[in-house]
Fold each of these.
Amino acid sequence: MTGCLIITGASQGIGAATARLAAGAGYAVCVNYHGSPDRADALANAISAGGGRACAVKADISDVMQIDELFNTA
């Protein structure tokens, strides 16, 4: 089993592509978002539907407390 990978800004673009590749390589993926919950949830659901493990977590990575919560959740 491969570990968990937190990807910030993963709800679209390069972050989303990285999340898909990581899930395909066996990582559990934590899709971090700040302002796009629908996209992040859709990506996490698509990864899970494809047999991977993923969750979407809202966190502003400029806030230390939210970073701690992001890591605790992941």
Amino acid sequence: MVKTASTMKKLGSPAPDFKLVNVDGRIVGLNEFNNKPLLVIFMCNHCPFVKHVADGLTELANDYLPKGIAIVGINSNAA
């Protein structure tokens, strides 16, 4: 059980600004997505459940990136 209860913004709310380190070491922020619709996936790269759906996430990206949907995966277990 978690010590702090999760909270959720209302669906359709503007995303809060963020700056995170990308896999290539570059800092990425919300402003780089140019107000495109943004799908944010909180995941952990070494989680067995994420590994199980990795191919499906690739298919999702291949289907939606050409339609102008930006996708960000945030590894919530990494510092």
